[in-house]
Design brief:
It holds the Pfam family NAP. The protein is α+β, with helices and mostly antiparallel strands and about 290 residues long. The chain is built from seven helices and seven strands; from the N terminus they run E-H-H-H-H-H-H-H-E-E-E-E-E-E. Helix content is about 35%, strand content about 15%. Strands 1-2-3-4-5 form a five-stranded antiparallel β-sheet. Strands 6-7 form a two-stranded antiparallel ribbon.
Length: about 290
Amino acid sequence: MDSSSANVDIKKKQQQEAPTPQNTPIFSAPISGSARPSVPVIEEDMETIQTPGTASLLANNPQLMSMLQGRLGNLVGAPSGYVQTLAPDVRRRVKGLKSLQNKHAVLEAEFQNEILALEKKYLGLYTPLYEKRAEYISGKSEPTEAEVEDGVSDDEEEPEEDEEDEDKDAEKVEGVPEFWLTALKSHPQFADIITEKDEEALKHLVDIRMAYFDKPGFRLDFEFSPNEFFTNTILSKTYYYHDEPGYGGDFVYDHAEGTKIDWKEGKDMSVTVETKKQRHKGTNKTRVVKKT
């Protein structure tokens, strides 16, 4: 399956209804007309204290949402008995309205496909900017003077340099440390779900890229620098949509697949280790017991 990959523009707002992720998944997409799959925290398999409501359950469970969409889709067009009670002339007009709706659905499907094609086109145009952004963040290259000047806001004041700033310069910091952690924590959709435990791993996140497929769907690639938690360099999550559009002409989410995380020993962030001391009644000796 061919795909073109690039980073995700963190300046674009992510819509409430799906996909992407776009990231930062943060694009508006034809796929975005469907129920947006959630981007869970690393501890997505752990129990939570709060009891989610129905809306929250659907938003955080793409599989459940897809199943409900399928079940409800089977009800579309099913007779309710109401139309049969109408006068013959009215029933005839209702059939005409259904014909118009069917034609509208065809146009909507074409509309969504054209938006998707347009997004793919511009993702290719964005790619050089994203690649250069990754170089600046990692410290592989430096921005030009023209870019620096262009990046200064009209209302931005340059801070006065002092001895402390000179000491910081002497440290020779490479790139922009913790750029993606800062970006994600600044985004309203991610700020509340990133825990302190997550931050330790996300400090090593150096790039986020996105790839579209020929068929409806996309992949998010999260690149990490060497860290103490896992050996993977890239963690990917792929979102699949049905080939055929839904009743309204939009893309219908199917399922998602993620990379298996190769955790280092004792560093699995999805597992909570509970440590307890047990005292033997006979010998009065104590021992430490760890339970996951």
